[in-house]
Design a protein that fits this description.
Layout (H helix, E strand, L loop, with lengths): L2 H49 L1 E4 L2 E4 L15 E7 L2 E4 L20 E7 L5 E10 L8 E9 H53 L14 H48 L3 H28 L7 E2 H12 L9 E5 L5 E2 L3 H18 L3 E9 L2 E8 L9 H5 L13 H11 L3 E6 L4 E8 L7
Parallel strand pairs: 9-11
Antiparallel strand pairs: 1-2, 3-4, 3-7, 5-6, 6-7, 8-10, 11-12, 12-14, 13-14
Helix pairs in contact: 1-2, 3-4, 4-8, 5-6, 6-8
Length: 446
């Protein structure tokens, strides 16, 4: 999962959780507010009950009932009750039930609020007050209670939540969208890091630079330090290769001089053996130096394959192996590949020399374009190479026979891999086709 998607999901979950807690808190606050309003309303209704009390021949009666019609409707949801020495007086809405007030002690004028079970086992919010009546009403202490169905309060809270839910949903969507925009803006420099690294790899830049946010700058600095260390190591490797070439130059000359003296002394066989050994050693050293040069080449190199092939074939036609062959060049002028010209000459030269050595009568050099890559092929009509030995030949120091060191294919493979390509071997009809798969390049060689 991408970093952006992880952060977006985490942010969305946090927003949903926060808004859920907010909605729950608002629901509780609204419920408490509704209950306070209900208590205030019951306070008014309790005062109305007390104001309507009269004493008649049958004791206390309520001459003026509260105006709300629910007091007169059986189980209407609003109830009043008076408990005193003369017995129990209650609203018509209680019908044959009574409010089961708890046995608590209230001072004169004291008020308690309870949650009780009322008619039909419905939960009630009940307010009771202890009052000492005036002498005209008998002067006794009575408990007056007014109750309200708690379902009405719960219904009000549910209605509030139903009205609130769409707005909370819209708020959640808005916050999630804002979070996504914030992530896109905040993580944009990371996309720039990827693009800059790709440019470095393609040779379109040298360093990451310092134009980065403070959080990304340490990574850019480390990449630049790594590039600097790699360049320094490459320079040291090239220096060691140059030192090696210089150090071996004198011994090679000494060996060739010794071979010349042996030939003058009439020992031509020994002289030839020394010269062959020295030449083989020189070829090995030269090719290892070519590898060192390849490692230091930039990735933005471009070479004209047609020009390189023309020069190679012109030379090979003058060699003993190539002078009797039919050389066919099927590479259009201006075909550019992502490889340095010297490296392309080294790789194609190795393949063309191998083809000339094994071909019976014909060598074909051709090019095709496929999936943004250039395929340079060298085909001969020789005996070919068994498929089970091809990987061995491409590997370092692989050889097809005992006639030579056989480094050509492995060097060509290393040059192609250094440029981001590869070397493949396949059957021709008859013979062998060696193909360099290289990055294509637009434009002209420098």
């Amino acid at each position: 999962m991408s970093l952006r998607l992880r952060l977006a999901l985490a942010g969305a979950l946090a927003i949903v959780a926060a808004l859920g807690l907010t909605a729950f808190g608002l629901s509780q606050l609204f419920g408490a507010h509704v209950e306070r309003r209900a208590v205030a309303e019951m306070q008014v209704q309790l005062d109305q009950v007390l104001a309507g009390l009269e004493r008649g021949s049958d004791g206390l009666t309520l001459a003026r009932a509260p105006a709300d019609p629910r007091f007169d409707k059986p189980y209407g949801g609003l109830y009043w009750q008076i408990e005193g020495p003369d017995g129990l007086t209650r609203s018509r809405s209680l019908w044959d039930s009574a409010l089961d007030l708890p046995d608590d002690t209230l001072g004169d004028g004291g008020v308690h609020v309870h949650r009780l079970t009322g008619p039909e086992d419905a939960p009630l919010l009940v307010m009771e007050r202890s009052v000492t009546l005036p002498q005209r009403l008998g002067g006794a202490a009575v408990r007056v209670a007014v109750g309200m169905a708690a379902a009405e309060l719960e219904e009000a809270r549910r209605a509030f939540m139903a009205d609130l839910a769409p707005y909370m949903g819209l708020l959640a969507l808005g916050l999630i969208a804002a979070g996504w925009v914030q992530l896109s803006v905040g993580l944009h420099p990371l996309r720039g890091v990827g693009a800059r690294v790709a440019a470095l790899r393609a040779g379109r830049g040298e360093r990451m630079g310092r134009e980065w946010p403070a959080e990304v700058l340490p990574v850019a600095n480390e990449i630049d330090a790594l590039l600097a260390a790699r360049e320094a190591e490459t320079d040291r490797a090239r220096g060691r290769a140059a030192d090696l070439a210089h150090g071996l130059k004198t011994p090679f000359q000494a060996l060739m001089g010794e071979a010349a003296r042996l030939r003058l002394a009439g020992e031509a066989a020994r002289a030839n053996a020394i010269e062959d050994t020295a030449r083989a050693m020189r070829r090995t050293v030269d090719r290892e130096l070519a590898r060192a040069r390849t490692a230091a080449r930039t990735a933005d190199a471009v070479a004209d394959a047609a020009q390189v092939v023309e020069r190679l074939v012109a030379v090979l036609r003058r060699t003993p192996d190539g002078e009797t062959l039919d050389w066919r060049i099927e590479i259009p002028p201006g075909t550019c590949v992502g490889l340095d010209e010297a490296d392309l000459s080294e790789a194609l030269g190795a393949l063309a020399e191998n083809a000339a050595r094994h071909a019976r009568s014909r060598v074909i050099l051709s090019v095709t374009e496929q999936d943004g890559q250039t395929l340079l092929s060298v085909s001969d009509n020789g005996t070919g190479i068994p498929s089970d030995r091809r990987a061995e030949l491409i590997a370092r120091h692989g050889r097809a026979d005992e006639s030579g060191m056989g480094l050509g294919l492995s060097i060509a493979a290393e040059i192609a891999e250094a440029a981001g390509g590869r070397l493949s071997l396949s059957d021709a009809t008859p013979g062998l086709t060696a193909t360099l798969v290289l990055p294509a390049r637009n434009g002209s060689p420098a």
